[in-house]
Sequence to fold (22 residues):
Amino acid sequence: GDWLFFLDIVIFKAKSLNIGEQ
Fold:
């Protein structure tokens, strides 16, 4: 449901932040 969509966004943002720091 919406939880999977929400988790996908959180994971995507987390990965984006990790890439940005490197």
Observations:
- The first helix runs from residue 2 to 21.
- The two ends are 33 Å apart (CA to CA).
- The chain has a mean pLDDT of 87.
- DSSP finds one helix and no strands in the chain.
